[in-house]
Amino acid sequence: MTTATQTTNKERVFIFDTTLRDGEQSPGATMTLEEKLQVAEALDDMGVDIIEAGFPIASVGDFEAVSEVARRSKNAVIAGLARAIPADIARAAEAVRHAKRGRIHTFVSTSPIHLAHQMKKSEEQVLEIISATVAQARNLIDDVEWSAMDATRTPIDYLARCVELAIKAGATTINLPDTVGYAVPEEHFAMFRSIIERVPNADRVIFSSHCHNDLGLAVANSLAAVRAGARQIECTVNGLGERAGNAALEEVVMALRTRADALPYETHIETTHLSRASKIVSAAANFPVQYNKAIVGKNAFAHESGIHQDGMLKNAETYEIMTPASVGIKETTLVMGKHSGRAAFKDKLRELGYALGDNAFQEAFVRFKDLADRKKHVYDADIVALVDDEAGSVDDRIKLVAMEVISKIGGVHHCDMTLSVDGAEVSSSYDGTGSVDAIFNAIKQAVGKDPNLVLYAVDGVTGGTDAQASAHVRLELNGRIASGNAAEPDTLVASARAYLNAVNRLMIERGAPAQGAMESAAG
Q: Which residues of 68-79 are buried (b: 16+ CB within 10 A; e: fewer)?
């Protein structure tokens, strides 16, 4: 492995992906085991060096997910997170023991504000904890990463003492995270440079950067750390993560590739997989990617301005600093219609990064033909929405069977609805101040509980009056949040199905039976 002090013309930067751990901690982003395995496979295929698969001590489900990812990993190091607690470390070691290469990632707070209010420990007590727990981890596994939580708000002298002890105890990777997204690039660079220069044996370990995006500086800070000597960047696909998220893997990787003149470092990421990985994570976490998201957003390679279009027709480099193909995005938009057959549809799915089983493919094809009959043009974005929506609803235990909505200007809006709950039909009827309000009220009456509606939004998947409506709903019940998405040509049907998708996700998280599921969630 390349260390922080080795110099070559093109130095290696290791990519540590924490989508399945830090990313999943984003409220509403909880994934099922199958979804985690799908994400892990995509990361492994893409060339991610280290996959942090979860927090094994957190729950039986998390332990099982980390263990199964470890068993299935082909190339990546599989890491399990552990607090500086002996039981956590032992549990993490057990979870990654089946990996070809496993890692324990243990952490402890070091900043004064964390020590005083969260840890309630003195600096000396924390130093003792570091020595004991890192040594325990190293006795269990050869690859140990140690993190100083809230490093960027830790006095540099004390941080240096902590790092020195962690190295002495056996850590092979030292992570200095910007836990609350507080740093700016200049001071982040200075922190890494100072620690690397002053700590004994710093040349024997890899230094790592883990940045949060509270000030929108996560990627900039990560790159500053690399320039200072860090050779591992911790990031997530789509920047998924707590609060404002983490450094986005796709942005870090493409910045290093595109600006190799200013950043002479390389990764082993196959960048043509970036778009597919983004779609897989977005569907699994149920978090839509913003249209103007760098690298993988819907508009990242779209041009509407006449001046821009003119430049693009003459030479694409006038307004594009990388090609769509370099990140796995196709330029063609209008490709499918009602006369397309199964072979063409399967080829298009493969082009968009989907590999469906026979049953899932047949269901998606039927929905595609139905959409094509109602819609003049079917775009790539329509197919993505159709497949993702179908994938997210296959296992739903509460499904929409029938719905009739009556809307009156200046009058009461009414909804009659029939749902299938674990195969049994349940009917409800409710009024509302608007059509969507009546729909949501009817669903709440049927399931027997009133979750708080945190977010409701509707977007057109493509342009035109016949565009599919993509509805997004986020519900909260007793501190737990779940998101739901659905795409339909009918906005009201899309809204109903998105709300039900969120309800079903609340059920999955809780593991409650469908009958009375929302009442159980309240307990």
A: bbbeebeebbbb
